[in-house]
Inverse folding.
């Protein structure tokens, strides 16, 4: 799915429009990949980092899990903790590679 969305995003960039990638980009190699491809098309690239404390994320997920909307799958505390260990926070040297908002 992500690949199809990126292909579409590239087409939109070619039209000169703005694109928002609304998926994880949790690792530096992922961020480097998309930034490099967008820059190759002369696009400006801004990185917005949402890095909430794990306790805040757990409170939000608990409310989401409790609401149990149809089609929503439960995310456990253990799954959240596993996922949080995969996130590579951008360091200052990486942030300097992006354009200001």
């Amino acid at each position: 799915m992500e690949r199809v969305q990126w292909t579409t995003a590239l087409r939109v960039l070619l039209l000169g429009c703005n694109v928002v990638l609304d998926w994880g980009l949790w690792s530096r190699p992922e961020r480097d990949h998309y930034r490099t491809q967008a820059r190759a098309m002369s696009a400006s690239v801004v990185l917005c980092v949402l890095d909430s404390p794990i306790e805040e994320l757990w409170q939000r997920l608990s409310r989401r899990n409790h609401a149990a909307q149809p089609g929503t799958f439960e995310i456990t505390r253990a799954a959240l903790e596993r996922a949080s260990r995969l996130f590579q926070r951008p360091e200052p040297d990486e942030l300097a590679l992006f354009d200001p908002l």
